Amino acid sequence: xxxxxxMKAIVFENVWKIYRAxxxxxxxxxxxxxxxxxxxxxxxxLGPSGSGKTxxxxxxxxxxxxxxxxxxxxxxxxxxxxESERAKWRRRNVGIxxxxxxxxxxxxxxxxxxxPMELAGMWSKEERVKRAEQLLDFVGMLDKKDKYPxxxxxxxxxxxxxxxxxxxxxxxxxxxxxxxxxxTENKLKVIDLLSKANKLGKTVIYTTHDPHLANRAHKxxxxxxxxxxx
Length: 230
Ligand SMILES: Nc1ncnc2c1ncn2[C@@H]1O[C@H](COP(=O)(O)OP(=O)(O)OP(=O)(O)O)[C@@H](O)[C@H]1O
Ligand SMILES: [Mg+2]
Description:
The chain has 230 residues and is of the alpha/beta class. It has eight helices and ten strands. Helix 7 (184-199) links the parallel strand 7 and strand 8 (203-208).
């Protein structure tokens, strides 16, 4: 295998995602997308609402499968996997920050951060708790570790979600509009955390519709109507 291949974190090859409504109507959310992201890069995907950002993140994270084309993550063609293989693969390979947080409401902040480590069967219980507390300290949420998600502000929930995404120590962090519902101060805090994660060696990809926030990344990929803008 050549060195060039090993360096790639995420490769999209002519990726199409066509959603089918129950009425049978088809909607192409992604229309032939190709790009490559190297390991260790800090990349923003910039595009307006409905351009396909969430779809792209879900495909890169193996939550959804493309209708056509290949998605290769850390040299693994995840489009060849079935859903349960992808779910298992996801636990150790990608950390995802969702547009609307998706913390488990019945679990405390600490328990939410412990969950990915438990699912991946990583470390002993004491080590997991120690790591979760370190991560919550990293995102400035240690003092809120025993609170439940609904007792937190949007910014706090999103910072907890960043800690959760980092928990199982995946090489890639995918963040889907991690700042969408936050005020300016919290927006910058979350982007700062992603930048720090990148400096610690993670490949970080985040989506946004805000050119100013996109400019914090080292590279910007523009998307519109399911296609890349060159
Ligand atoms: N499950 C689905 N079924 C049908 N169409 C869908 C589905 N999910 C997304 N779409 C459509 O695909 C297009 C892209 O959606 P997507 O959620 O990826 O956009 P987005 O860039 O994330 O938008 P936003 O900034 O509003 O979050 C939209 O037009 C949307 O209506
Ligand atoms: Mg979206």
